[in-house]
Amino acid sequence: MQTLGVPYPPGYAVQANADLTAQAQQVATNLKDGGIDVASDREIIALIAYLQRLGTDIKAGQNKPAGN
User: Fold this and answer.
1) Alpha-carbon span 51 to 30, nearest angstrom
2) How far is the C-alpha of 18 from the C-alpha of 23, rounded, in Å?
3) pTM for this one?
4) Of 16, 36, 54, 64, most Cβ neighbours within 10 A?
């Protein structure tokens, strides 16, 4: 996104990678607790994380007053 001109702060790419690694590991851990053993670098982990984020953003949007 930075190459497209999104004004992220300096060093954001390093932080973003650390965040996604932590999120992927958490998703994999939750699946393992449910009896599903999958590595944190699989595409299904990315899909689950994406869907979780969509759900989080939708819930956050419902709390905003009308007109915002």
Assistant:
1) 15
2) 9
3) 0.69
4) 16
